[in-house]
Design a protein that fits this description.
Oligomer: single chain
Strand order of the largest sheet: 1-2-3-5-7-10
Structural class: alpha/beta
Order of helices and strands: HEEHEEHHEEHEEHHEHEHHHH
Strand content: 15-25%
Shape: globular
Number of strands: 10
Largest sheet: 6 strands, mixed
Number of helices: 12
């Protein structure tokens, strides 16, 4: 049974919907919706984002997800008002980054559709996604240094792995913003498109991914993520086991048979 709690639940800080994908699985869309504060990431919003992602992840009719904000801002950073007077112990007890760890455990691919500001926690949220489609207007940055702190939701780690030590050092130590084209050239962004079509491009890519065999897509994502926290030897071993595992799936037999018979495969997700 597909889980549809994400469609029946009313959220305060996000908007959710599904897009049809004829002949394939649907795409789940989550839009950050705090326009008055440029989608600043408060705790309540992050709770809702994680709940919606996990619900889509459990839904057998969803094959891929898109996370977006508004034309003006994907997310302009964390909600500083929640942290301005907090002590170290209060932050430790709050453990607000625990829910970010749950995003990394989402099995289905997540595409970030970024327009406008993606700063601080907004940049980090985009980096928790698997692919980033950026509008030409997108601005990325980790300005936490200007507040007397550093990135705390993975920025120092994910950014360095994505664009290398030197560029990550410049972004994090200066707090400067960088444009979408610069971040594409650096390797953070998958594709830069016209600001009028960035969400359409992300949804089209999501629909393409959702048309692929579900189990293979999820195991492929798992293998790519594994490469970031393992040696080449252990990563290759992990990849090989997942490769062999797919030979137990019905989709493997259908996919290869369809190739031999020169016809379109009919995926079962099994």
């Amino acid at each position: 049974m597909s889980e549809k709690t994400h469609l029946s639940k009313t959220y305060k800080n996000i908007l959710i919907s599904e897009t049809e994908n004829p002949g394939a699985l649907k795409v789940g869309l989550i839009q950050l919706n705090r326009p008055d504060v440029l989608n600043a990431l408060n705790i309540e919003l992050m709770i809702e984002v994680v709940e919606a992602l996990e619900s889509f992840d459990k839904d057998n009719e969803i094959g891929c997800m898109v996370l977006t904000g508004s034309a003006k801002a994907f997310a302009a950073g964390a909600d500083i008002k929640e942290m301005a007077e907090a002590t170290a112990i209060e932050m430790l007890v709050r453990d607000q980054f625990a829910r970010w760890d749950r995003i990394r455990k989402i099995k289905k691919p997540i595409i970030a559709a970024v327009s406008g500001f993606a700063l601080g926690g907004g940049c980090e949220l985009a980096m928790t996604c698997d692919i980033i489609i950026a509008a030409e207007s997108a601005k990325f940055g980790q300005p936490e240094i200007n507040l007397g702190v550093i990135p705390g939701a993975g920025g120092t780690q994910r950014l360095t792995k994505a664009i290398g030590k030197a560029r990550a050092m410049e972004m994090i130590l200066t707090g400067k913003m960088f444009g979408a084209k610069e971040m594409f050239e650096a390797g953070l962004v998958t594709k830069v498109v016209d600001s009028d079509i960035y969400l359409d491009e992300a949804l089209e890519l999501a629909r393409e991914i959702a048309s692929k065999p579900t189990i293979a897509v999820q195991l492929a994502k798992e293998c790519v993520l594994k490469s970031f926290d393992s040696t080449i030897e252990s990563g290759l071993e992990f990849e090989r086991k997942n490769f062999y595992l797919l030979f137990a799936s019905e989709d493997k037999f259908e996919g290869m048979k369809a190739f031999v018979e020169k016809r379109k495969a009919e995926w079962k997700g099994k």
